[in-house]
């Protein structure tokens, strides 16, 4: 059987038909509802993801997602709220908003400042949610209204994942990404001015076709200057059918691996320094697990599954929020002690 990328939410009906004896089912319907809501289950205890849109209107030269998923389509705001309420009833306290580009939310629905509007609506309609976290922001879509909503709405985490892909204008130009670095510096400045405690995460590709040593050095300099709290580094891999796959001057596998190591080593130093600056701070920690006299949790600075942890002595109740003081810092993780009282 075949099922289309826009029909994934019909997979149960497809399986039922197969079980009933149907063969050679072709379930590919381009008009399918890519963003339809399905009954939600919290898969990570107190934390759950909500996909607020799917598809992408950007044209990054290395990315096959627009080819596979088609144009950007937002989930209606009422549907997102309904899912959030359902998750809250199941005990979820942290919702992570995801999409190929969360910051484009609502444009296709004619909403201006769609994401800030959604954040306000969620904060009001689902007060049980303690943390609302935004992943996958596109730099040019982070507006003053979004920054204001993040800074002022209590449940919105002072955390932003902003995949920038590179830090040299020429590489960014070949990637067909926004390449005006001054705009990025201004944006980071505005985010940090509005939220001095904001944790920033980004991702970068090394070894993009034609990436010279000078361009790679430019990326390192960019990483040093911005000092993201956390960074994911990926080696370029050609996606069939994308413009980047046709670009000349590939970077050799050895060179790519060497650049990957250099970028990771640099970021480890930066992450350690950023984590050390947390020592002495008090933060809320969501406990995710406990065993052998130790609890593992996260503060607003750590997104689930991609960032590090906050470790606490003692076995605390999973799902509880505890106030804790950071006492030690490692490259990825922090150690904290529960505040008395
Ligand atoms: S990298 Fe992200 S923003 Fe760029 S085309 Fe792919 S999904 Fe869209």
What keyword list fits this structure?
alpha/beta; pyruvate-formate lyase- activating enzyme; six-stranded parallel beta sheet; 9 helices; about 20% strand; binds iron/sulfur cluster
- Ligands bound here? iron/sulfur cluster
Q: How many discrete domains?
A: 3
> Proportion of β residues?
15-25%
* CATH-defined architecture of the largest domain: Alpha-Beta Horseshoe
Mean pLDDT: 93
Radius of gyration, in Å, reads 21 Å
Helix content: 25-40%
SS field, number of helical segments: 9
Level-1 CATH class name of the largest domain = Alpha Beta
* Count of strand segments: 15
Order of helices and strands: EHEEEHEHEHEHEHHEHEHEEEEE
Structural class: alpha/beta
**Amino-to-carboxy terminus distance:** 59 Å
Morphology:
globular
CATH homologous superfamily descriptor of the largest domain = tm_1862 like domain
Question: Low-confidence segments, ≥5 residues, pLDDT <50?
Answer: none
The third-level CATH topology of the largest domain is pyruvate-formate lyase- activating enzyme
Describe this structure in words.
The protein is α/β, with parallel strands linked by helices. The chain folds into 3 domains: 33 residues, no CATH class; 242 residues, pyruvate-formate lyase- activating enzyme (Alpha-Beta Horseshoe), CATH 3.80.30.20; 57 residues, OB fold (Dihydrolipoamide Acetyltransferase, E2P) (Beta Barrel). The chain is 31% helix and 22% strand. It has 9 helices and 15 strands. A 6-stranded parallel sheet has the order 3-6-7-8-9-10. A hairpin with a 2-residue loop joins strand 11 and strand 12. Helix 3 runs parallel beside helix 4 and helix 8 packs parallel to helix 9. It is globular. The mean pLDDT is 93. Bound molecules: iron/sulfur cluster. The site of iron/sulfur cluster (SF4) has 9 residues, from helix 2.
